[in-house]
Specification:
Number of helices: 6
Strand content: 35-45%
Shape: elongated
Number of strands: 25
Largest sheet: 10 strands, mixed
Radius of gyration: 46 Å
């Protein structure tokens, strides 16, 4: 016979169990109701789920199908649902079984495998269309395909070199007959003013220029090309800028190079002309000074040399109104006035004017000599008559 105290203990335990059940249903009533009624409380769409094909990979080549689908997952267990939705923790996979199909085009149903029993899935689409061909492999030459043969600045590209020049192509036997050429298509965005040096994906094209399904080995080739940049030679001249030093009348400039080679587009070179004026800061210079000065050019234009040494000689004002070059001795002063190959623009211009004047004087002298030599002849002719 059960004692009174034991009966009380059993009663208290029953009441506690009853309260626990009530509290559980109160907290999870909706989920339990959905589970009992067959309705899942949580849903989530998972896009880009890969489709795995089951077939003889050594014998057949498959193409023409959608490689991903969208799966709508639903479950009363949110933790389990999230695990299947995340790619890193996903257990299920979508497959298409082609093992019993022959060559040709087929519509194949998709199946979800290894999905947790607590989760349901609905696929969109739930079928795919595939083309099955016999697998073949052949080696092809790769041809570079350019949409433009100039760089952004207008420089002309030289011949494009591909490495490797041949690739191994795997595809279906029917597709192989449609291949017109294997190309490495070079996008204009890959071209710089220095040329091309990039990796390009290999493609197979038919006679209409449309891409075909292939697997290339290697998948990419390296494309390289240099550019031919127009060049021209220009004359260099100097112009003084700044505040002259005390008692300085003017300045003579002597350049280490009086010509430079400029590289740029045709339009840039045409706009540049045949000379470049170099601004030279003479502020406060009262003695002969040598400075390295960069040659100014616009963006997109390069010049060789990029800088030159400029010897700056101040011409001093004398008290009697005459000028005198600042120098350590008379001989060095007189040497500045000469016109060697590396002389300044000012002395070079003087030399050219002197040569031009001398040439004109020589021409006039020659003309006068000719006239004078012809006069005696005319006199002799008259005396004979």
């Amino acid at each position: 016979m059960i004692s009174k105290e034991r009966r009380k203990s059993i009663l208290y335990a029953f009441v506690a169990l009853l309260f626990s059940i009530v509290l559980y249903f109160n907290a999870n009533g909706q989920s339990v109701q959905d589970t009992l009624s067959g309705n899942e409380a949580y849903t989530q769409n998972v896009s880009d789920v890969s489709v795995q094909l089951l077939y003889d990979t050594d014998q057949y080549y498959i193409h023409g199908y959608e490689s991903t689908v969208t799966a709508k997952l639903s479950s009363a267990n949110r933790v389990q649902l999230n695990a299947e939705a995340m790619e890193d923790t996903r257990m299920f996979r979508v497959t298409a079984d082609l093992t019993d199909l022959g060559e040709g085009t087929h519509e194949v149903p998709l199946k979800v495998r290894n999905l947790s029993s607590a989760v349901k899935a609905k696929l969109d689409p739930d079928t795919i269309t595939v083309t099955i061909e016999k697998k073949v492999t052949k080696e092809f030459d790769v041809t570079p395909l350019l949409e433009t043969e100039t760089t952004p600045a207008g420089f002309e590209l030289n011949d494009v070199e591909l490495s490797p020049k041949k690739v191994s192509v795997t595809t279906g036997d029917q597709t192989l007959e449609e291949i017109q050429q294997i190309v490495a298509r070079i996008d204009p965005a890959m071209i710089t003013d220095d040329g091309i040096d990039t990796k390009v994906t290999v493609q197979a094209l038919n006679s209409a220029g449309e891409p075909l399904s292939i697997v290339s080995d290697p998948v990419q080739v390296t494309a390289k090309a240099t550019v031919t940049k127009p060049t021209k030679t220009v004359r260099l001249y100097g112009t003084a800028q700044g505040t002259p030093g005390n008692n300085v009348e003017s300045y003579d400039f002597s350049f280490s190079d009086i010509e430079a080679e400029v590289t740029g587009s045709e339009s840039q070179l045409a706009q540049l002309g045949n000379s470049i004026t170099i601004p030279i800061d003479i502020s406060g210079i009262v003695h002969r000074t040598t400075r390295k000065i960069d040659i100014p050019v616009e963006s997109g234009v390069s010049i060789t040399p990029a800088s030159i040494d400029v010897e700056i000689t101040p011409v001093l004002q004398r008290d009697d109104g005459n000028t005198n070059r600042s120098s350590s001795d008379e001989s060095s002063a007189s040497s500045v006035g000469s016109t060697p190959a590396n002389s300044s623009s000012s002395t070079t211009r003087q030399s050219e004017e002197t040569q031009s004047t001398s040439s004109e004087e020589t021409s006039e002298s020659s003309s006068e000599t000719t006239e004078s030599s012809s006069q005696p002849n005319s006199q002799e002719d008259s005396s004979e008559n």
